[in-house]
Every structure is written in C-alpha cells, then in structure tokens.
Design a protein that fits this description.
The structure holds two protein chains of two kinds.
Chain A: E1 5-7, E2 10-13, E3 19-24, E4 31-37, E5 43-50, E6 53-56, E7 65-68, E8 75-79, E9 88-95, E10 108-109, E11 113-117
Parallel strand pairs in A: 2-11
Antiparallel strand pairs in A: 1-3, 3-8, 4-5, 4-9, 5-6, 7-8, 9-10, 9-11
Chain B: E1 4-7, E2 10-14, E3 19-25, E4 32-38, E5 44-51, E6 56-59, E7 62-67, E8 72-77, E9 86-93, E10 100-102, E11 106-111
Parallel strand pairs in B: 2-11
Antiparallel strand pairs in B: 1-3, 3-8, 4-5, 4-9, 6-7, 7-8, 9-10, 9-11
Classes of the chains: A mainly beta, B mainly beta.
Chain lengths: 118, 112
Amino acid sequence: NAGVMQNPRHLVRRRGQEARLRCSPMKGHSHVYWYRQLPEEGLKFMVYLQKENIIDESGMPKERFSAEFPKEGPSILRIQQVVRGDSAAYFCASSPVGLKISSYNEQFFGPGTRLTVL
Amino acid sequence: KQEVTQIPAALSVPEGENLVLNCSFTDSAIYNLQWFRQDPGKGLTSLLLIQSSQREQTSGRLNASLDKSSGRSTLYIAASQPGDSATYLCAVTTDSWGKLQFGAGTQVVVTP
C-alpha cells in the first residue's frame, strides 16, 4: 500500500506565476488535509477536503489560494500569482475516516512539496 | 484559542540515554494527540496517536502519555540511537473535522 504521494517534490516559480501542487492520498483514504510550513515556523493547517467537497478552509489565505479534491484524481492546491512569501513546504495528509465518524483519526503525511518563489 | 508548546526546542544526548520530550496545550478539550517525527527535508512520520480517552500508547521503544486535565503529553524514547536524531512534533485535534494544530517541535541530536 503506497503512502501519500505528492508531486512535484520541488517547484520553482517566478513571482506572478501559478503553482499547482498535487496530492494522492493513501489507497482507501477519502479525507485530505493540506498544511504549510513556512521557514522557521511550525506547520499550519490550510484546508480539509473530502471527495468533491471543501469541508474546512479556515486556514487558507483569502486570495490567490484554492484547493480541490475531484471525484477522480489527486487533490490539487493551486496558488495563483505567487509571491516570495509563498515560499514554503506544503504537506498533504490523508486519513481513512473523518473525526466525526471516529475519534481515531490518524493522519498520514506525504513527503511535501517545497515551493521556491524567485 | 489553543496553543501547543514543546519544550525544549532542542536536545542533545549521548547514545543510550533515554529521551523525554514534552508537549503542552492550553485547551484540554482535545479529541486526540499525535506525535510525529520529521527528518530534514522530509515529510512527517506518525509515531503514536493517543485518543482523548486514553492515558498512554506504546510502540517499541516509544511511549507517550497524555494528561488531558493538565494539558500535557510526554514522549519517552528508551535507549536512544543516532538514528533517532530528528525533529519531533506533537499535534492536537480540537475540532470535529480533525485538523491538527502543531507545536514548534523539539530538535533531537543523539551523538554516538
């Protein structure tokens, strides 16, 4: 059973370009979380998605950031018109159930995508 | 507002010593607490998850305790090895959607 996969592992963009980060959850997992780790800062929650639904986007910046988790295919975090402050490691995690279903909601993390904005 | 704190921020021990890592949280209304390991430039590896109704969890050389009322968790690593060198993160879940709130981590170096 492959773990959570993220690609690309490293992404370089110039200011103003778009960044697309992909996350394939573990097989059988239908819950995806995105987190961001800024340099010298801890991990911060961004968004929680289930298939075709955004459940909680309270951690997403109000502009330029969006996320989706289609019925088929990976979850995608999209950052439009990137700025230098977007440079960070972006991690995706998946879990088999949501916390509302089971209190045992262990999250499994991917290797991350390291975004560098020039 | 939930705040998660990990002390110390960094720790260096000789091989063979036991490691004790601390995590505290300000709001005791948590669903669970999870300990992770992060190696430089890598993702997070889940080590242990303690549900709010549990007092501790064990896996091999690792043991984690949880005292919800005092807002504390401790991760013990017995007989440390150089391969245990990494950053250890604790995270709590305080809402029913399951999002994790992380501490800043403890960077551990185990010297041979």
